[in-house]
Design brief:
With about 290 residues, this protein is α+β, with helices and mostly antiparallel strands. It folds into 2 domains: about 1-125; about 130-285, Heat Shock Protein 90 (2-Layer Sandwich). Helix content is about 50%, strand content about 20%. The chain is built from 7 helices and 9 strands; from the N terminus they run ββααβαββαββααββα. It has a 5-stranded mixed beta sheet with strand order 4-6-7-9-8, covered by helices on one side. It has a two-stranded antiparallel ribbon with strand order 1-2. Strands 3-5 form a two-stranded antiparallel sheet. Helix 3 (about 135-145) runs parallel beside helix 4 and helix 4 (about 165-185) packs antiparallel against helix 6 (about 235-245). Mean pLDDT is about 80; it is low at about 275-285.
Length: about 290
């Protein structure tokens, strides 16, 4: 029995010998046709479901690969900035210590990215966990201050904990600082702040660069694979916003031409009631 779906021959169905010596009449033929059409439709549905599943897995893989490439670009930018400073401060023993620390941190970050890429390939998603946000933001600020000594870091002393993936959240702040430094240049001013607002932790990265107009923010800033940078990939802002959303937060932008830019990451604290209905894992982490 040929199994035909649409105009495509899907397979053949082989029947066993008849158990009775009954002639094959038109009713038997119609029954065979109905069975064949039904079996063909089941095969077509299974093939379509498998193709959709493969496409989704490939799309997720490609998206993560694009994010990893962008994170590597940020690390390369940090190393490039460090090399530029080496021309001015290379003989300073303190700078040499900072350089070694930065290289060590880059190796750790790249190793973490490779492990994350491997886990995505194996369909394993990093589990969010409880993070001491003050320590994370302070560590990120210290790493960047080695490359931009005039970076202003202002952190509230209050202990703030959020539920997130440590590496992803560090990537968010690294990207925002990288963009701010590139926007204002080596002689510009960049500030990194952490404060609490009600049940949220708020991390701000502000620069005195050229700024952006409302139309660019609305129509272009968060569109993937769109960029005006010669060496950019158009993924940073989009990636940052998506990662922050995964942790139940949001990314706000304040900017105007000639007035700089302020990027604000708002994440619910671990004690926030807004975390409770999100999923079992995050509720259990509180």
């Amino acid at each position: 029995m040929p199994l035909v779906h649409g105009n495509s021959l899907r397979a053949f169905l082989v029947l066993a010998s008849r158990r009775t010596n009954r002639p094959i009449d038109w009713e038997t033929i119609d029954l065979h046709k109905a069975v064949a059409r039904q079996a063909a439709s089941y095969l077509a549905e299974e093939e379509a479901a498998n193709a959709l599943s493969d496409a989704r897995r490939l799309d997720s893989f490609n998206r993560r690969f694009a994010f990893v490439v962008h994170d590597i670009k940020n690390l390369v930018s940090q190393m490039s900035l460090m090399l530029q400073n080496a021309e001015r401060y290379g003989d300073d023993p303190e700078f040499q210590k900072d350089m070694l620390a930065t290289v060590g941190n880059t190796v750790i970050r790249m190793t973490s990215l490779l492990e994350q890429f491997k886990s995505e390939t194996n369909e394993e998603t990093p589990e969010p966990r409880l993070i001491q946000l003050n320590q994370l933001v302070s560590r990120v600020g210290e790493n960047w201050r080695k490359q931009m000594p005039n970076l202003d870091v202002d952190l509230e002393a209050e202990d703030m904990r959020v539920v997130a993936d440590h590496g992803s959240l560090a990537s968010v702040f690294d990207h925002l600082l990288q963009n701010a430094i590139e926007a204002c240049g080596a002689d510009g001013h960049v500030a990194l702040r952490l404060r609490r607002h009600e049940d949220d932790a708020v991390v701000e990265v502000e620069d005195d660069g050229p700024g952006m107009d409302a139309a660019f923010i609305r129509d272009h800033l968060f569109r993937p694979l769109r960029t005006e940078k010669a060496d950019g990939y158009g993924l940073g802002a989009y990636q940052t916003r998506e990662l922050v959303r995964e942790f139940g937060g949001r990314l706000d932008v304040e900017s105007a031409p000639g007035k700089g830019t302020k990027m604000r990451v708002v994440i619910p604290l671990a004690t926030s009631p807004r975390l409770m209905p999100m999923n079992g894992t995050r509720g259990a982490s509180n």
